[in-house]
What does this fold into?
Amino acid sequence: MKSLLIRNQLLTFFLTTTLLGVAQVDSLNVKDNNSYYDLSFNELLNLEVKVASKKSEKTSDAPGMITSYASSDIERFGYYTLKDLSNITSGYSSFSAFGETNIETRGQKAGSWNASKHLLMIDGIPVNHSRANSAPMEYQVPLFFADKVEFLKGPGSALYGTSAFYGVMNIQSKKLKEEGAYTETKITYGDAGRSRRVMSNSILKNSLGETNLSFSYFKKGFSGDELGANGGTTHFNNDNSMFVNSSFKFTNTSLNGMTLGIIYMRRNSHAGEFWGATPSPANEVTWEEYIPYLKYELNISDNLSFNSYLKHNASTEKSTFSASNNMIPASVPFSGYDYTTADIEGLAEIAYEINDRSNIIAGLNYDSRQELSNPTSFAWEISAPADTTVSLAYNFNTQDYAGTVRVNVASAYAQYRNEFNILNGLILTAGGRLDNGFSETGTYTQFSPRIGLVQKVTDKLNIKALYGQALRVPGVKEIGLNAETIAEIETSGGNGNVNEIPDVGAEVIKSIEGGINYNNKKISSSIAYFYNVTTNALDGAQYSFIDRNTQNITANYFENTDGEIIATGFEIDLQYALSNNFRVILNHAYAKAIINDSIEFVDVPTQKTNAAFTMVIPGKRKFAATAI
It folds into this structure.
């Protein structure tokens, strides 16, 4: 309770100081930060991305297959969640699993109900849930505040570590180039679930520094849609989400380069089809993250820079469940759990520009996360008395979570980039990351290499050849859930065998990619081919046994599956500019993943096509129209 009070006090302090800064807007000139509308198509093509190599570069030059969206794209599409953007991105798509939004990349997806095989960063800060390691895809991260969103397709562990398995999503916040103030707000209402959405950004830049505050609230009731895979069973799909992103960056002071920030995300929704064939209003799940951070960036010299951050991520996962459609049933248990994980992560990185054609990046990263024990984390159950003719008093039992699951990862990484004078330039990017982890289940050491070749054939045509490897290691949820299942078997007095619940280890993906980019003043086009092999896939499973009372018990656990998952496919992206104000967008993706030479993934599209046009009507007041 004390830690929760301190957390709320800190959040109030940051919000108050940020709002005080933004309150000065009236005394300053408001500067329109959304300048992408004024850029030509050719200038939009040359917008730089950082997600592939941590160095700003054109998308066509980056050692990775990337799709990026500017703030003007997001506004014209009207897509303000990563879920929506992923559905129009070749190589990505979203799907519903147990009531939660998950994403697939190139034919593969995470098992269970966690989007836990993609890394999400906001302004360079990883924001995945520290217990489930899931990437938030709905309105707990609205994109109204985003200046740019980058989707990297393929493994990124060589730079980013264990979470960057299938891909990386990077969000950059809107900033001001000059001193002044900027504020914007969007309010919407409507649809079958009577959704209400408020999104607001405020930025103030003066001689002391830059203050940013982004706030969003989204609420939607049950729409009546049929969800999940239970064949016609209707489940509630309500959503209640909140997002706060507040920061202050010092400039022109002794603290120049230091940023203090807080990111808060919360989503409460109905638990999906996994939670019983008969839906209940009581079935709901809440994901919450509170991330205060300190970031420090310093230009030591013209050629040498230093980048670092220290963050704390207090993540909560809690749920309530009833197998009946009554809130408190008369004959079946009404239960729930509340688990909190504390994560401390630090990063220190240097970048050295050897000359205008080559540079080196090297860094150290340490991550320590622990699932807290009772009374912070616990489970509970309300059940009816055995004989309701004698007593109507309900029994309330708490199941203390005594475990203190801790997972630690220490990492070192380096990357070398050089452009050779071959044709219009041959860009070599090579590097790797060494991860050393230790937890209750043991230790591991894993090296994740990468190499990328980008040949500039002409000033319009580039050819790419890439190889990368990534890993995903068991987190506190996987290790903790397996420990809970073992404890349940041991105390049941039944026929369960704890030896059938395995220790879990790291899964590994190896990826080969090739691609061609062609751009001119009217056309932006690319085609990419990939071949991925995943081994020791870490996914959820169920274990059934009979307890001492001859009741059937089903418990959840995680395991590494045998064999390989081989995924192959291609992606085609095309944009054509009839003029600076009118664009046609087409993309098509094909991906097929086979498990052990015979089984295909379900809920993953084999082929996906998107078509859109977007138009801006020029004038003193600009208007935009888009059809998808």
